[in-house]
Amino acid sequence: MALEHFVRKGTKQLRYGYTTGTCAALAAACAARLLLSGYAPEEAGLMTGKGIYVELPLEHCGLEEDSAWAGFPKDAGDDTDVTDGLLICARVKKTDGSEIAIDGGEGVGRVTRPGLDQPVGEAAINSGPRAMIEEEVRKTCEELGYEGGLAVEVFVPEGEETARQTFNENLGIRGGISILGTTGIVEPMSEQALVETIELEMKQDGLAGPCLVLTPGNYGTHYIEEEGLDRLFDPDGRPIPVLKYSNFLGETLDMMPACGIHTALLVGHAGKLIKAAGGIMNTHSRWADCRGEILCAHCALAGGSTDLCRRVMDAATTDAAFDLLKEAGLLEDVIRSILDAIQEKLDRRTKEKVRIGAILFSNVHGTLGKTEEAARILDEWQADGAGTEKKEEEQ
What pTM, to 2 d.p., does this model score? Predict the structure, then answer.
């Protein structure tokens, strides 16, 4: 059953999908119901973190000697996703105690490197889906009056083969796909439609003033709100808007002069923005993922040993690499080198038609640093904002 929720991207209307985590949670709840009652429901539903209710017919299930299983096919909507159509299953068994234990089976990857959502040795079922699975299974147990424990095994029959088309192996996830989904919903992405939407929003922002704060997505907007960067003012006392550009950094930089933007502050999570140090202006992982190479090169430039460079290159995430650099006393030097490279690539792309600087942060390490140009822009904007606020108080 297709999810009949849509979002407009530019001139196109695109359909939402639902995540592997949503499928796993529904499958686990149905398997628990089948095990505890002997009957499988005709359909199952849950409210996702996005606030969209997903209800699907149950067509894949079975009752075994001491367990039950159920499965739902992943639907990526109008998004391009290699897991689209994969059957995501869960098998449930009774256990002693009252715990809901969650693990992965066939086709679900195992974490082999530190720095990911789950520790080494655990199934690659992220914390968001784990919480969804436990919540749905507990609801079923309470409804049926069962107070014992259950072991939930998530499995994906074609997961290992599909994982070869992903970056899981590079991240240190082996043997299958990851069960993902923070909100439970897949938001479709049409690249041309997104670029058109970014341009339209930027034109509107340009009419309000010539300054802009740019960020790739939700991590950046959260950081911007926490740091008060959404409450800045331009030299004429006008509020500076925040624009999300997704992965399209190059197109966004190219469009700014024609949209009336001449000064911008780029705020990005290291996992995305560090790619700009290598001149990569579309930061989607399917186009390029050279974070390890960039970190390794700048580690060497900062005087890192061959052994340290190898470990940085092999780190599963940027935060894991930062931990290694911090331990070696090189994090500050490496970040400064990377920021200089980002500034040079930004200036080259904008051809000095836009004044722009960058701020780099991480969810683990917080603010990592800012380019010299970003520091100057930020000082000017903060001073103007403070002056404007003072004038408003006086009035």
Answer: 0.67
Q: Tell me, what's the pLDDT at 200?
A: 74
Q: Torsions phi, psi of 110, nearest 5?
A: -115, 140
Domain that holds residue 382: 191-394
Of 325, 312, 364, 367, residue with least CA distance to 117: 364
In this structure, what CATH number is given to the domain that contains residue 38? 3.30.2110.10
Rounded to whole angstroms, how far apart are CA atoms 60 and 158? 15
Q: Which of 186, 203, 237 is the last residue of a domain?
A: 186
CA–CA separation, 280 and 76 (whole Å): 27
Task: Classify burial at 52, counting beta carbons within 10 Å of its beta carbon; exposed 0-12, middle 13-18, buried 19 or more.
Answer: middle
172 lies in the same domain as 54: yes
pLDDT of residue 115: 73
196 pLDDT above the threshold of 50: yes
Q: d(Cα 260, Cα 204) in Å, to the nearest integer?
A: 9
Distances (CA, A) of 378 to 150, 254, 343, 354, 389: 53, 22, 15, 15, 16
Total number of domains in the chain:
2
Provide the pLDDT for residue 302. 97
pLDDT at 1 over 70: no
Compute CA distances 119 → 95, 124, 246, 327, whole Å. Answer: 24, 9, 28, 20
Torsion sign across C-alpha atoms 36, 37, 40, 44: negative
Interval 368-388: pLDDT, tens = 999 999 999 999 997 544 444
